[in-house]
Amino acid sequence: MSQYQPPVLDAKFVLDQLIGFDGLCEKLQLEDINIDLADAVLEEAGKLSSEVFAPLNWDTDQNPAQWADNAVTESPGLKEAYQQFVDNGWSTLTAPEEFGGQNLPQVLGTAVSEMWQASNMAFALCPLLSIGSVEALLAHGSDELKALYLPRLIAGEWTGTMNLTEPGAGSDLAAVSTTATPDGDHYRIKGQKIFITWGDHQMTPNIVHLVLARLPDAPPGVKGISLFIVPKFVLDENGEPGERNDVYPISIEHKLGIHGSPTCTMAFGDNEGAIGYLVGEPHKGLPYMFTMMNHARQGVGVQGLGISDRAYQQAVQYARERVQGKNRDGSKKPIIEYPDVRRMLLTMRSGVEAMRALALEASAALDFAHADNNSKEKYARLELFTPIVKGWMTEFAQELTSLNIQVHGGMGYVEETGAAQHFRDARILPIYEGTTAIQALDLIGRKVLMDGGVALESLLNDMTATATELSASSNADAQAFGAAFAQAVDKARAAKEWLLTNAPSEKELSQAVCFDMLMAMGYLCGGWMQGRTLLAVIALTDANDDVYGEEFLAKKRISAMYYSQCLLPRALHHFGVMVQNPQALYEFAVDQF
Amino acid sequence: MKILVPVKRVIDYNVKVRIKQDGSDVDLSNTKMSINPFCEIAVEEALRLREAGTASEVIAVCIGPKIVKEQILAALAMGADRAIRIDVEEQPEPLVIARLLAKVAEQEDAGLIMMGKQAIDSDNNQVGQMLAGIMGRPQGTFASVVKIEGDEALVTREVDGGLQTVALKLPAIVTADLRLNEPRFTKLPDIMKAKRKPIAETTAADLGVEVTSTQQQLSVAAPATRQAGIKVASVDELVDKLKNEAKVI
Amino acid sequence: MKTLVIASHNNATLSPVTLAAVSAALKIGASFDIFVAGKGCAAVAEEAAKVDGVSAVLVADHDALAYQGAENLAATLQANAEGYSHIVAPATSVMKDALPRLAALLGVGQISDITGVNGEAEFVRPIYAGNAIATVTSSDAVKVITVRTSAFDAAPTGAGTGAITAVDNAVDCGLSRVVSEEIAQSERPELASASIVVSGGRGVGSEENFALIEKLADRLNAALGASRAAVDAGFIGNDHQVGQTGKIVAPDLYVAVGISGAIQHLAGMQGSKVIVAINKDPDAPIYEVADYGLVGDLHDLVPELEAKLASVL
After folding, report:
1. A311, C129, C132, C163: which has the fewest C-beta neighbours closer than 10 Å?
2. What is the CATH number of domain A8-155?
3. Burial of C187 (0-12, 13-18, 19+ CB in 10 A)
4. Tens digit of pLDDT for each residue in A575-587?
5. CB distance from A562 to chain B under 8 Å?
6. Known catalytic residue: A508?
7. Which intervals hold domain Electron transfer flavoprotein alpha/beta-subunit N-terminal (chain B) (predicted)?
8. Reading across the β-sheet that carries C253-257, which strands appear in turn?
9. Is residue C144 classed as helix, strand or coil in its secondary structure?
């Protein structure tokens, strides 16, 4: 099995040079948190991910979680791996100090999370979901609920799950029909939830389920959903897990990928009803979900980044070793020497680096918003990034993990080499946590049309500033990049205007063009990050930097140029398709299929 | 009992070694540096002794310019209680290092000095032994097991023919070999705490040690590369080649 | 100038690695004496006296030196170091333990693990796990040196007529004692000085299967080696480990069976004159250093090789 090399230096570069980590920490008033500490954190996380989690990745795929008698047993080895994760304090990274957290910036949590996801996505889904429960409680839970559940959740002693989806309610959450009936100082929850990730396991003494359900007097539709906590074991008077609650996994899915992650159908209240506690105010479930949405959706985008990097690393290793054909002098020719293979590898590498920079920029947007008291402007920037990070990065990951198989040739199609696993694992990413279409509609509807394009214009202005700086540089690469990027930004601006003009009046327009808008913005944002990377590389090279070194900077430069030459044009393509408003899409009637 | 653990900043063991064009030295520019793996094992062993109640304090000591703070923090994050940096620009020779450490050990009244058997850059394997000689203390080198019993350190050593266990009267010097232990992963909260632990700074002059030099590195070259060999198709062919071509059997 | 060569021995016989140290001494160019420190080691002194060109053999025969522990050995050597410009020992675990201590007691530096001598004050030694070779000079009044024995041919012996003198100033520091030893007794040649070494790696698969390697080693009258992976997996004891953190060997013939050829292993054997690799993976890195490579299942090939050698040798 291939080794995982955690991208510590690249993550440090992005944090330091593009995000301005030290400045961010100052804004957040975090004394003695700086890039050196971030580096130490990344190093340790890297070690754990590559030495403990990565080696288990193949095993969990081959030995999936098992269900029997309404209980799930996770893949062998994961309990111990989880214990190491928890014992070494990694679940506390971004949580507030008040409840035992380290209070480190979100952006650092994201950089670390990439490594968990890349090394073992199925396993890493567990702590990722726990964060959702933590955030919900932090934002909306009563002091009592917080005191009972947060310390253990943050410490990782208990895990958390998100129970939203039902057989009839996937993209349409308004259709949620699980009920919550008042019963003394708590509620009885009855209903079935499906596709619940890590819904059950034997790794911890308790599991905290977050559940969307309707109260008896709830208004119909989206305005009638409330948020509840349903613990697997009801807490006794000492706050310890006591009696078994009436919530059981009644089956698990046999999936295309992430076999190590138990995807459960959860039955709440098949018997006396599951005891649940209301989080916050009644009927506020969906708005509450929205507060977690930025983190949750960006988290999935980061999964796309992680799996793509894992696939890339494997592809490079294979291409270096696999010999096919000879050079003119008779020496053996590894396939990495063929230009088409290098094309595939560079697409992966440059794509991954662009995604990493974007993921961290978007995550830092949350930190900058917090530092600015969630000012409207800063929050809008965060919200704008979210669907792009989730939607674009997960779609791009499909191509990149597929390229890994292509590089492997026939052996890539054979499970044993492991390339297929990454491809299979990646397939869920554009689906869960809001499908690509949902992200795209969110982008157009809520993030562009709703504020009249103000947030988008602000982003495009920042991009224009970068384009200008590149064009004004005396460096030839920067000028070339600047020209290409400026052109793309112009197209983006034109597309924005086109949307603002036409979408409000044409019923189906947003839905018809949303995918192209999403992908265009994704490639554009990736290009912006690569352009800023190029500027940083030039500045560091001119200053004879000795932190990153010539070799590293040279590779970053070429990666940025490759992006501008070969990947940025995709933005032009998508904007082009969009503003064309392809009539054929509307013409072909439903009954013509 | 206090345990002193010298740690060294060296090239990361995963990094490919490059030699400068002019052959004057190994090229360390922009190279990832880490705590010497044998030193890390020594820190781990010292921590285990403290956790077992045998030692009261683990003190890391590092010789070098400001940049070695990275490695000091790594040792503190693993769990060392405090650290001392001896400010020297260029790495001194082993005899001088031993003299510097001897002074620190005296000042700290360390009952045990636990250190790596060698640094993976110089591969000298000298400092521990020299330190023991200077201090007139017993030495347990190439340790694969360390037990403290009363006023003695029982050290199992990896030697040419197998294993040897010696009993050293404390205070003593022990140098760690690879199989002594597997260093723990550093916990996130401990990385945070490390920056608050005290790092005292001192100089050779403060310690009353003269930084002298009697050795000089004239040049560094790459090792001779072997010529590529051939693949033989059968056992018979192999035996034939070994007997008649290579003439080694 | 005069060199003192410290003998490596087990009180009964002189170890051949001493002759490598003598080779180095000869290259330094001064006349040399040999120091034998031990307990009941008269026979060793006799052997040492036969080394071609040796001037004198000094013997410290004392209880305190029975195990040649570093404290007592270094102190004893210090008491006898007067008049020598060079003190040279083979890089055995005993000498690696004692010589630096001696150097410190004499107030001088040490040059460890030399692979070449350019003159009385200039030496060549590997650094960075042998990934770089350094040429160093020393201006110390006494040069204390350990010698990588695989890098020097054995100096000739048999014609020497050294004068044996007992020294009576052995030192007992009383700082430590040997509690126990687990020294493997073997009929086979010692790894460090054998002319043929047969090594098994993780590919061998089990402790039981290592018998195949042992049988081949015995057929070739070879020393038995192993990769770190094989030792860690429990197939064989650590005293057989060849590699950066094990023993460095440079025999005439090194047969690597089921060994992939990780850098750390290569560091221990790439100085061998002829390397043979037997592995089922045709792309294993070991083939890059092997003179002769045979690809296939070692469980078939090794018995076949052993049988073929039986008929040919």
Report:
1. C163
2. 1.10.540.10
3. exposed
4. 999 999 889 999 9
5. no
6. no
7. 23-211
8. B230-232, C292-295, C274-279, C253-257, C196-200, C223-226
9. strand
